[in-house]
Every structure is written in structure tokens, then in C-alpha cells.
Write a structure and sequence with these properties.
Layout (H helix, E strand, L loop, with lengths): L2 E5 L2 E5 L2 H5 L38 H12 L11 H12 L2 H4 L6 H33 L23
Antiparallel strand pairs: 1-2
Helix pairs in contact: 2-3
Length: 162
Amino acid sequence: MPTIKKEEKDTVIFVSKEDHASPSKINLPEPEPSPGLILPSGEINWNCPCLGGMATGPCGLEFRDAFSCFHYSDADPKGSDCYEAFKTMQSCMSEYPSLYGNKETDIDELDLEDESQSSINDQKTSKSNTMEDNSSIDKNIEKQKAPSNDEQLSVERISINK
């Protein structure tokens, strides 16, 4: 039988090996599901980790205004009435390039960066495959014979660079 001792705000429970031998009889409540970005009431959950701290950064107020405008927008297409709010948010974010990216970055430049990164990744994959091919070529080069006393062996290494 466990011994329970209360010390001010703490409760200390001493148990024996026999107490641990039997399965626990404690039933824990089911954990509540995470509410996500939109709360059951339809409000925005500004504490959602999916926002990545955007709601609390130096442009948090502007972000919340723009995001709220978009979320509650009835315009067609949705958010088309939020141009000014997003423009204000973008203006604020351009003041903190180290936090939100380059002040000069344009959408077209981002597309070009994505394409060039994709091209670089393709080149790395191609180079990696080429190196694997070269290593198999090196392994397939004719095996060397040990030279006898009166002859000298001349070995030529073949390397292929693509």
C-alpha cells in the first residue's frame, strides 16, 4: 500500500515493488483535440503554431488585420476587398528584411529563385549519379598482376569526367 505524505503544496507518494507489480487503476481523461487555426466558434486562433509567430512579431497587428479581413471577407473572389490591409502588412514587413525576407524581393524573383534552386538540385543529382557511374567504371578496370622480378608493371588509371 503506498504511503502518501503532503508537504505544503506538494504531495509525495512512496510506493513499493509490489505496488508497481500490479497494473495501474488510474484512468486519465481523453486529451482535448487541438483547436487548429479556426476555433469552434469560428474565430481565428492567434495562438496556433501554424501561424509561425506571425501574429506576435513586429508586424503582428498588421498581419492580424490582413488575415482577419481575408477570413471574414464575403467578397468575390474572397479577400479581394483586403488589398489595403495586405499592402499595409507588406509595407511593415519590408521594414524588417532580416525577419521577413529581402525588402527588394518581388514575386517574380521568388519564382526565378524556385526555378534556379530546382535546377541546382537537378545538377547535384546528376553529379551524384555520374560519380556513382565513375566508381563502377573504376571497379571494372582490369585487375593488376604482380610484376615478376625481371619485368616492371606500368599501370594507367582511367578516369572519366562528365
